Amino acid sequence: FAELHAAVAGLPLSSSRVLPGVVLRRDFAAYCPAEGHLRAVLVTEPLRTPLPARGVEFVVESEDQYQASLCWISRRTEALMKHLQSNNVKLLLSSVKQEEVVIYYAKLHGVSVVECLSAEEIALVREITGVSPYTPFGDNIHREITETAVATFCQPLLLGSRKCVHVGFTSVCSFQPHCLILCGPVDGVNEQHAAALQGAFTMLQQLFKRVDL
Fold it and tell me: Which GO terms fall under biological process for this protein (predicted)?
């Protein structure tokens, strides 16, 4: 329930509504509008290509080597974004903050980015879509990307003064997510309404369990 409702203070109760899909409490780090269904990937690590592998020491002995290293990182990051684009990936959902070079090449190749998602939000998207996080680095970063979810729409959403991301995912199970937008004059009223609704849903769950038995 915590991930499937959002409270907005300063608006009348009549402004409350139910929206299909999921509302992520983050703004776009990069937004590239796309029509129709689009492919999305989850990532849980920075996409800026690391120079050394884990446990390997990398020594830079001159300014020229340092600049060459930065150029190599930039080219590899651009190649990764081109690879996402060639696999028709239009949305990148990240649990970590990505570096500016990643955001730059994402915008350049038409990939929207939402970063710093919570563990709960990532878990919800995984439950809905059935996909695992994409790991780009390894022996072959150009392999086909199979860890993709399908989104029917992805757009900005303004809740009061807060910018959010509204995404509709194609669910792989019977669970069809909807998000409850609770509006009220002050936070305290919204908290009371949220607690009452959560209690009502819990009661309905228990009732239907008894009917099933």
Answer: chaperone-mediated protein complex assembly
What's the CA gap between 85 and 126, in Å, rounded?
A: 22
More confident residue, 74 or 122: 122
CATH number of 22-176: 3.50.7.10
Among the listed residues 166, 168, 148, 144, the one whose alpha carbon sits nearest the alpha carbon of residue 157: 166
Lowest mean pLDDT segment, chosen from 6-20, 27-41, 159-173, 197-211 = 197-211
**CA quadruple 22, 23, 25, 27: dihedral sign:** positive
Paired residues of 113 in beta bridges: 30, 92
Q: What is the mean pLDDT of residues 25-37?
A: 92
Location of each CATH 3.50.7.10 domain in the chain: 22-176
Report whether 162 contacts 6 (CB < 8 A). no
